[in-house]
Design goal:
By secondary structure, the protein is of the alpha+beta class. The chain is 25% helix and 22% strand. The strands form 3 sheets. The chain has a 9-stranded antiparallel beta sheet. A hairpin with a 5-residue loop joins strand 8 and strand 9 (158-161).
Length: 280
């Protein structure tokens, strides 16, 4: 017969195993939430992901992702147009930026919202291609009169904006699936930073696939444990208090069962977004 001590040891082993399984399940749920920053419909991104990844992998080992050596002070960027027949209605076509983008100077981004201005600093030496894309979109009034469609108050602490189809009254099931008619590779990934996305960072959303950056971006209003897979565009220099007030108002939980968070209860409308000429 099994001794009392052996039964106790077996019970302890089962308890440890059950605890480990529960912890692994919790970590898996957290990973699914913290990596699901959505830029566009996944099916759409998959169409071009292979092309984008090939363009990046052919670059030299010392190149920034998505760039190749060009004239002094300039970068040769890769902007991949989406096939016309596979663009959903949420795509807003304003053309494609020039492949030649300046890699010098600092720009000021000004986001004029219904709650007040939010400003950020963008260093083109770190993100020449993303800054070039953002400047192109801003010049085309791409972001005007759009709403920040997603707020996550637990874990990653972000306010996500930049979907050109998120407009008008109320919310649509497709909000969060819009973007421009092209995609670009990620750059300036914070792989050596802890946390990767500290409070005050503004970064680009993507679908989780390489080369799936579009127009959607997120403002980090509290240190975030996101995986370093999203382009750091710049840093907020003003208006972060506005974002924190939006976070305090909470979200409606619309995305709670998928990526996490929901639509912000306190509505944020981007009336105008501009990028200054590079300085320095």
């Amino acid at each position: 017969m099994t001794s009392t001590r052996e039964r106790q040891q077996a019970a302890a082993r089962r308890a440890r195993l059950e605890k480990e399984m529960a912890e692994r399940a919790a970590k898996a749920r957290k990973r699914r939430q913290t990596t699901a920053i959505i830029s566009a419909g996944a099916a759409l991104v998959l169409v071009v992901a292979g092309t984008v990844w090939l363009a990046v992998s052919l670059g030299g080992d010392d190149d920034k992702p998505g760039t190749t050596t060009a004239a002094p002070g300039a970068s040769e960027c890769v902007y991949n147009a989406l096939p016309t027949e596979q663009r959903p209605p949420q795509i807003k076509d304003v053309g494609v930026p020039s492949n030649q983008q300046s890699g010098t100077g600092v720009q000021t981004m000004t986001i004029d919202t219904n709650l007040g201005p939010i400003t950020a600093k963008v260093d083109r030496s770190l993100v020449p291609c993303t800054a070039g894309s953002f400047t192109h979109l801003a010049e085309k009034n791409f972001f005007d009169n759009t709403k920040c469609h997603r707020l996550v108050t637990e874990g990653i602490k972000v306010l996500q904006c930049g979907d050109p189809s998120a407009t008008g009254n109320g919310w649509r099931p497709t909000d969060g699936q819009g973007g421009p008619s092209y995609r670009l590779p990620e750059e300036n990934l914070p792989t050596d930073k802890r946390p990767p996305y500290p409070e005050g960072v503004i970064a680009m959303a993507n679908s989780g696939q390489p080369g799936s950056t579009g127009s959607q971006f997120f403002i980090v209003y509290g240190d975030s444990p996101l995986d370093p897979a999203y382009t750091v565009l710049g840093s907020i220099t003003g208006g972060l208090d506005l974002v924190k007030d939006v976070a305090k108002a909470g979200d409606d939980g619309a995305f709670a069962q998928q990526a996490g968070g929901g639509h912000p209860k306190k509505e944020v409308i981007i009336k105008d977004l501009t990028m200054s000429n590079p300085q320095g």
